[in-house]
Amino acid sequence: MTPERRPFIAGNWKLWGTRAQGGEYCDRLLELLPDEGRRPADVGLCVPFTALDVCVERLRGSGVKVLAQNMHAEDTGAFTGEVSAAMLTELGVDGVVLGHSERRQYNCETDRALQDKVPAALEAGLSPILCVGESEEERERGETQRKLRHQVQEGLDKVPVERLREVTIAYEPIWAIGTGRVATPEIAQEAIGFVRALVGDRSKEAAGEVRIQYGGSVKPENAGEILAQGDIDGALVGGASLDPEGFARIVAAAEP
Description:
Layout: E1 8-12, H1 19-32, E2 42-46, H2 52-59, E3 65-68, H3 85-91, E4 95-98, H4 101-106, H5 111-124, E5 127-132, H6 136-140, H7 144-156, E6 168-171, H8 185-202, H9 204-209, E7 212-214, H10 220-227, E8 234-237, H11 244-252
Parallel strand pairs: 1-2, 1-8, 2-3, 3-4, 4-5, 5-6, 6-7
Helix pairs in contact: 1-2, 1-11, 5-7, 7-8, 10-11
């Protein structure tokens, strides 16, 4: 982390959180977090579509961002089961997670689709988190950089240079998501440094400003060591974010 890049800690609830659970969680989290001006990081929650409006209402004025977990690139059309950017902004949503590895694996999310989704989110006024990361097999074959290069270049291809800094990138090694295995701080730093260099191929200025999170079995116990790395600007937290006490501790770990 550097003073120019304020850390961003986002909790991804995945398939968890009824409206009642979401409301209770938000109330409890606000009890645990310092006031906005005293927080060491920006904070966001990535919640299911059905709980978005509840969380937006409960968190209004708190500074805690609310993000959706997916959206379609088109505003309208024959896309049954999809949600558009306009539907999200109408609810007051702040941002959206795009290209999470679970959506790539289970919902056939492609880099080609993300090429359109990322700029569509920006145009709508949503802050995108673009997820990238290699599988265990790709890492073992020495293909981590090849995979990251393809994902980053494709995902940012249609983003104007002057808007690159508005995209948050989350490096999530697939082999560490929900497995309890965590990339060592050195592995995470190396990969995220490479991602930053890829952004630098488009714009050196943007590379110094874009925030890059680490995700993959982040917990209160390991967050401090991970967040202390120079190029890591926050975390995209999965399972550990379902406990507001633990999530608040992860936020606190961003303190320099």
